[in-house]
Each structure stands twice: as C-alpha cells, then as structure tokens.
Design a protein that fits this description.
Blueprint lengths: L10 H18 L5 H15 L2 H13 L4 H6 L11 H14 L9 H10 L2 H24 L13
Helix pairs in contact: 1-7, 2-3, 2-5, 2-7, 5-6, 5-7
Length: about 160
C-alpha cells in the first residue's frame, strides 16, 4: 500500500504539516503529562482507524517508557486495571470527542470527571491533543498513508 499523495513533498501539504507539527510541539511542552497525551493519541487513532498515527504513537510511547501492557490495553481501557483515574477520564473525553460525527457529544459528566483530575491549562492541552490527532488521523485516512515504517524520533 502506498499513499495517494506525498503530502510531505507537496508545497501546500508541506506548509500545512509544518503548522500541525508546530502545534504538536506546543502541546508536547504543555502541562498535560506526556503519557496521557500518548494514550489519547493512541486511542483516537484506534477509533479513527489511522494506522500510521497508531504506528507513530505506540512506538513513541514505548520509547518514552510506556509498558507493552498499557499500550496493548488502550483499546480496552475500561476493562483494564492499568490506567489511573486521570488517564481514564482523558480517554473517556477522547472517545466521546472522536465519535461526535456519529451524533455523540462530550457529556457534561465526562468533562466534569476530567476537570477533577486536570487543571484548566491541562484541559486546554487535552482538547488540543484530541483535536490535533483527529486532524492528523483524517489527513492520513484521506491520502491512505500506510503505517508500519515509522522510526522513533523520525519527525522530531
């Protein structure tokens, strides 16, 4: 499988990606813990069926010290006992946000639960991480960018 378009090599796509990568760097340095960010990126990518993003974020999480058990159980986080209450709250907001196109909403209950664990700056970063990974997921799905070849730090 190969991508429909070399988005990195395209002048317009390259400029757009540069802006997305810049936004990602801003979020990476935010007060939202990096493990939470990677769990959110993985779960959103699973929901959205984005192989390349899932490839990237599972490998980056592992390189940052995330365990295989937690990486493997992200898809079934509700049934797993390896995630903190804060991580569960972030994953719930992520799932609800990713399914808005299906008529869902981020419920007041899910937001209030997240607000118990994260301050306003962290919540702002959480919204940013969810929004940005959804943009990356959709871009990659449209151009059918395949996963599997990512090397840790490749886009650093």
């Amino acid at each position: 499988m190969s991508a429909r378009l070399d988005y990195f090599g395209n002048p317009v796509g390259g400029k757009f990606l540069k802006a997305l990568v810049s936004a990602n760097r801003t979020l990476a340095s935010s007060p939202l813990p990096l493990p939470v960010q990677e769990l959110v990126r993985m779960r959103a990518s699973q929901i959205n069926g984005c192989a390349v993003c899932l490839d990237i974020h599972t490998k980056e999480a592992a390189a940052a010290g995330e365990t295989d058990v937690r990486i493997n159980l992200v898809a079934v986080w509700r049934e797993a006992n390896v995630f903190t209450e804060a991580e569960r709250a972030a994953l719930e907001v992520t799932e609800q946000a990713c399914r808005m196109a299906d008529g869902g909403v981020v419920t007041d209950e899910a937001w209030a639960n997240a607000a118990k664990h994260f301050d306003e700056d962290q919540l702002a970063a959480l919204v940013g991480v969810i929004s940005l990974i959804n943009a990356f997921n959709r871009m990659n799905a449209i151009i059918q960018n395949p996963g599997g070849d990512y090397r840790v730090g490749q886009f650093a």
